[in-house]
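Record format v2
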Amino acid sequence: MRVWVVIAAYNEASVIGRVINEVERRGYTIAVVDDGSSDRTAEAAAAAHVLVRHPINLGQGAALQTGIDFALERGADVIVTFDADGQHRAADIEKLIEAIRTADVDFALGSRFLGCSDRMPVSRRVLLKAATLFTQLTTRLRISDTHNGLRAMTRRGASTLRLRQNRMAHASEILSQIAASGLRYIEVPVTIEYSAYSLAKGQTVGDALMILLDLFARRLYR
Amino acid sequence: MIAQTVISMLLIGVVAYAASERRRSPVVAWLSIIAAAAGLYFTWTPDHATQVAIWAGVGRGVDLILYIWVCISLIVLLNLHLKLRSQMELVTVMARMIALAEARRRFSERSALPQPVSGRAFPD
């Protein structure tokens, strides 16, 4: 069965090459979705097996949906989403796939709180805990982490996702769609390695408020 | 009388606009209709407007109508925002179609799909 790793990248020229090399060493098929980057991300991602380029910047959620669509179209059996900023470990992909295989679930969700999150600032920890509590209350999923970009899904699971939140709220949308699908999921301990680079790209309290507004606004129209 | 007629026509316009939007964003449409209906009622019954205004702590009936108008403006602004979001979803679909078509073309130009390393996938 074919495993595809989807990496959404926006202005990640300085790190995307290293991330692709680490994943490729493990033998997975990689699809990088360049989300309208203004730097040399596309050139740096040339080592990927597939490069899908958005003509304009749409957001990470839109890029992931594009990558998932492409992987499904090409017959992927398992799709893994992986962040482009280098904070995920390629070794954890194997753990996610193994969990899907052995636990007979459709989604394996990476959890930094079950695993390890080196150098996570206290403010980020508090923000994520609050976001996790909010997600637990709104989706009734029993999860320990939210907005973790490292996740794996079967073909059946990926086919149920239809992301309409283009930007950061997509992570909450994925969880709510998992809950709505009724498909089985499992959390898997993973390691997040924070760096100054990934922290600078990470979410702030202001971003969290925007995510809440996005989720609320999406309920107001069809 | 002239002012009442002008305001009423504007509020009827708001109701018509809200009704036309009710399929796409029913919550916003109903909020607009309720606010406009309240505005119409108070425009033609200023005594009631004053009573409600005093009860609500606004002071004068005319101020109450003004506040209702501000509320309607904010709701219409929200509706415009939602319309922009809706347009953005269409843009996303189009951009995705273009991106996927281009990727398919590049993909077909290249040789066969790289095969996953054995042992990295499920056993058949």
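The radius of gyration of chain A is 16 Å.
Chain A has one domain: 3-218.
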